[in-house]
Design brief:
The protein has about 230 residues and is α+β, with helices and mostly antiparallel strands. It folds into 3 domains: about 70 residues, Alpha-Beta Plaits, CATH 3.30.70.100; about 70 residues, Alpha-Beta Plaits (2-Layer Sandwich); about 70 residues. Strands 1, 2, 3, 4 and 5 form a 5-stranded antiparallel sheet that branches. A 4-stranded antiparallel sheet has the order 7-8-6-9, sandwiched between helices. A hairpin with a 4-residue loop joins strand 3 and strand 4. The radius of gyration is 29 Å and the shape is rod-shaped. The mean pLDDT is about 80.
Length: about 230
Amino acid sequence: MQKLKMPEVVSQTGIRIDLPITGMSCASCAAHIQESLSALAGVNSASVNFAAEKATVYYDKAVVSVDDFIKTIKEQGYGVSISRTMLPVKGMSCASCVANVQGALSALPGVVAASVNFATEKATVDYFPSQVGIRDFRNAIKDAGYELVETEKGEDIVEKEQRERESAYRSLKGKVITGAVLSVPIFILMQWNSLGLSRLIELSQQIIFFLQLILATPVQFWIGRQF
């Protein structure tokens, strides 16, 4: 997982971030958190709104990080409201695709951290559900040129992703077998005279070329289309 990243706003008093806080029960809790955050080196100002359950911090990111804020809040006995989801992504074919998807998700306001596993074709996202959601993730992934596996209401996203993966595997396996079957006669036609088959069946060079074209067309434009 990459280093935690928060939505940032640059102001005259430094970088601003908003942290949703959990566990506060009174105004004294808010004051306690505010004091702890304000005491950190690099923090220009910090305020905690008990009603909104949110901490607003202005800071120098060269001195202090969001990790420090989250650690400080947890040390005081409170929490930061962050949700995590795993998103099956279709269409990735290389490490560059992984970087594109990860960058698109990380750029969304409300996303704390995002990582993409090319081997499993899944993106793991830590985020604030009050600021961003699945629809935003879907749009960001689509804008980057990829697809988020869609599910029907109540359907398990992992099960659907597995079914689609198995279906894609069966389709690819069928193409490989078909390509192999068609490639054998193509090879034989290429070596027709060298193999001595012209003594059995006399074929002109034009007919041989025409038969090769018929057999090679589906290999080139159907089986090999995705490449």
